[in-house]
Amino acid sequence: QVQLVESGGGLVQAGGSLRLSCGASGRTFSNYAVGWFRQAPGQEREFVAAMRRSEGSAVYADSVKGRFTISRDNAKNTVYLQMNSLKPEDTAVYYCAANTVVTTTPSVYDYWGQGTQVTVSS
User: Fold this and answer.
1) What angle do CA 22, 116, 41 make, to 5 degrees?
2) 57-105: per-residue pLDDT in tens?
3) How far is CA 4 from the centre of its chain?
4) How do strand 58-60 and strand 46-51 relate by DSSP bridges?
5) At residue 56, what are phi and psi to the nearest 5 degrees?
6) I need a labelling partner for 108 at 20 to 30 A (CA). Which of 13, 36, 66, 97 fits?
7) Minimal CA–CA distance to 117: which of 55, 39, 63?
């Protein structure tokens, strides 16, 4: 089992920045790929970014490419999502997830955090 806890959400004006953190406990965190997803009210959960087991290559949704950066610190069992140039359409609950392989499909992920709310005002 892997337990994930997100933090860092909040209210920010358009154009601002936030950094989300996701702390992991349980099994060896470095054995897992990690992903960030988001879900706005009335919408399906959508992929945001993901990173393979080792700190390195990442994949991003087109809607956040160039604005968001995923990173991980395996020594601290933590994954981050730096969000810059935020837009009102980025408003959602953001979730981190862990899986043995990197994928953009949320249903494939085995472990999920409880989510953190991000609200971007115009």
Assistant:
1) 140
2) 899 999 999 999 999 998 999 999 999 999 999 999 999 999 998 899 9
3) 11
4) antiparallel
5) 170, -120
6) 66
7) 39
